[in-house]
Design brief:
iron-sulfur, alpha/beta, rSAM, three-stranded antiparallel sheet, HemN_C, nine-stranded mixed sheet, chaperone, cytoplasm
Length: about 400
């Protein structure tokens, strides 16, 4: 069941225009590559956290009542490990959101889950609660790679989780993978890709491992090891080959690349993730969550990363924010252009310039050079990166910005 969403005119993508991201920070252990806001806990305050995020939503709506009337087209429960949250509390939160906001019919509701057997047993409960898109954090089927990434599951658990998701009648099953891991080979990445498509998912996300501290929100065990010279990552040419083989295997199985790191069957692209790539607005609730709203003026906010501090502030009826940044035309332009160029459909670059008051003419020669040298195509005004251009996405954006 593909989910309804408006088409963004600048990219041609179906994408939610207003969504909600809910961060569930609790994990049983923290993976060595993770820089998200995570709290390791054996006893998770499930009910308290459910009450706290709804209390935060009340505070945000008190500050901006107009948000109540905006059609909410996507909800994403990420983490952390949201599949540690009992389905009764997921249902409580989703019901609370629906009672406070104008939820669109056929809304996309995603939940991230780990593939361990204990999580799979809860899948029917999440489906009954209203979740209609399950995203499994697989990362790899290879025992060596899973060990390097600190993951607790194995390949059999992944297959069991997919089976449980199908039995629970999820219309969309998505899986996430990582390549470029220390000790990983191109052959192993190809084997992962072939095993993934054999499970017939609707959506696959596959990301290169990020270890460098300067691009992370905080130091991780792997970034510290890299800095000390204790970690040897695959050479760049192998990482490029890994990305290429992933594209080839997924494409041959009917999962088409629609964004640098994302593939889907026709009609099953993530409407919520496309929200980020097409300049939509999103409320964010929970520990460490980051939201972006255009009213009363464009701004981005990020919540406290400490679970205990978050709970205290939210329960007291205060906005549990760690920081807030006002976004001017230049910041909005840079994000809209850079995110649009992550999409295979590309972006109407002149319209983006005009929307945010940025000059077109000084950039026209650079666009022509990108096309001439095979880094991009230009059709009906929409600039799209080729595979060669996508491999150097950041460098291309720097030249245009």
């Amino acid at each position: 069941m593909p989910f309804d969403a408006p088409v963004d005119s600048l990219t041609g993508m179906q994408a939610a225009r207003f969504g909600l991201y809910l961060h569930f920070p609790y994990c049983l252990a923290k993976c060595p590559y993770c820089d998200f806001a995570v709290a390791v806990a054996r006893q998770v305050p499930e009910e308290r956290y459910a009450r706290a995020v709804l209390k935060e939503l009340d505070s945000r709506l008190a500050a901006q009542p107009a948000l109540k009337d905006k059609p909410l087209e996507s909800i994403f429960l990420g983490g952390g490990t949201p599949s540690l949250w009992h389905p009764r509390y997921v249902a409580q939160v989703l019901e609370g959101i629906a009672s406070r906001l104008s939820v669109a019919p056929n809304v996309e509701v995603s939940l991230e889950a780990n593939p361990e057997r204990a999580d799979a047993e809860r899948f029917a409960g999440y489906r009954a609660a209203g979740v209609n898109r399950l995203s499994l954090g697989v990362q790899s089927f290879q025992p060596e790679t899973l060990k390097a990434l600190g993951r607790a599951h194995d390949a059999a658990m992944v297959e069991g989780a997919v089976d449980a998701a199908r039995r629970a009648d999820f219309p969309v099953v998505a899986m996430d993978f990582i390549y470029g891991v220390h000790g990983q080979t191109v052959a192993q990445v190809e084997a992962d890709a072939r095993r993934a498509v054999a499970l017939s998912p609707e959506h696959l996300s596959t990301y290169a491992l990020t270890v460098e501290r300067e691009v992370l929100a905080e130091d991780t065990p792997l970034s510290k090891r890299l800095k000390r010279g204790e970690l040897e990552l695959p050479p760049d040419e192998d990482v490029v080959a890994m990305a290429r083989v992933v594209r080839e295997v997924y494409g041959a199985a009917g999962l088409h690349r629609y964004e640098v790191s994302n593939h889907a069957r026709p009609g099953y692209s993530s409407r919520h993730n496309a929200l980020y790539w097409t300049g939509g607005e999103y409320l964010a609730l929970g520990v460490g969550a980051s939201g972006m709203l255009l009213t009363p003026s464009p701004h981005r906010y990020v919540n406290l990363r400490s679970a205990e501090k978050y709970l205290v502030e939210a329960e007291a009826g205060r906005l549990p924010e760690e920081g807030r940044e006002e976004l001017g035309p230049e910041e909005l332009f840079a994000e809209r252009l850079a995110m649009g160029l992550r999409l295979v459909s590309g972006v109407d670059w002149e319209a983006v310039c005009e929307r945010y008051g940025q000059p077109v003419e000084p950039r026209r020669a650079e666009v022509a050079r990108l096309v001439e040298h095979g880094f991009a195509t230009l059709k009906d005004g929409r600039l799209a990166l080729t595979e060669k251009g996508a491999d150097v996405h950041s460098a291309v954006c720097a030249r245009l910005l």
